[in-house]
Known about the structure:
Layout (H helix, E strand, L loop, with lengths): L7 H6 L11 H11 L9 H9 L2 H12 L3 H12 L6 H6 L1 H10 L2 H10 L4 H38 L5 E7 L5 E10 L2 E10 L5 H16 L5 E7 L7 H12 L5 E3 L4 H14 L3
Parallel strand pairs: 3-4, 4-5
Antiparallel strand pairs: 1-2, 2-3
Helix pairs in contact: 2-4, 3-4, 9-12
Amino acid sequence: xxVVTQTVHEILSRLSPLETGWRDETSDAAIAKLAAISxxxxxxxxxxxxxxxxxFDIGILCSRLFLAFSKDKMELELREALGGGGxxxxxxxxxxxxxxxxxxxxxxxxRMSEAVNYQxxxxxxxxxxxxxxxxxxxxxxxxxxxxxxxxxAVVREVFGEGGYQAxxxxxxxxxxxxxxxxxxxxxxxxxxxxxxxxxxxxxxxxSDVIGDLDAIIDAKxxxxxxxxxxxxxxxxxxxxxxxxxxxxQNEGEIMRVYTSAMQHELVxxxxxxxxxxxx
Length: 279
């Protein structure tokens, strides 16, 4: 093979858009099932059974579309409503009435009636595209930022306006740097480090936080205190990752893990650390 010297400009000039369709066999099957639903003023448990009986997975997908639930949210809601014992096709075959009860409790019959009888306008189509695209990204950003704002309010309460730095890179052991959400009192004197992660959907980012925490653990001084604040029901679906975080806490790498419901404990612990460390 001939050896050549390439440039960024050369490669950029040869790039092409990677366009692809959004429909697959599952999408086509869901569209066909939705198209087969007859229009009427109200729907009941028999209509739900008709959606689930012949192809449970497609029926559940259609149910999610009516409810406007993500896959993660649907799983969480069903686990909450059904309790232990699974939420898939086997559970439905074993107890169809109980499963349909759960979907009715989520409001599926009413949502079906609203969707089927709704008269859309052209702007509704564009608004839905906005919601599912940019809106979904904004939701994720706001979840994390809302939790950060809560933690910052606590830190400000305990240490004062100038007693911390937010969203910065601190300098730790042997001059090693690492990013964090809050450092007290300053990034060049990182005695207390706080990392904050809030989630509303599962995904790779929930595993990425372990790498973020390990980077802080590796960089921080041995006498620095690392606190981790997180929240989101989706941790229930990523318990293996949460277990790794708790293991680090058990081993002393993380001083304590908090949720937003533990705000009072966070205030107390930071107040205690402030006195113990003379900050």
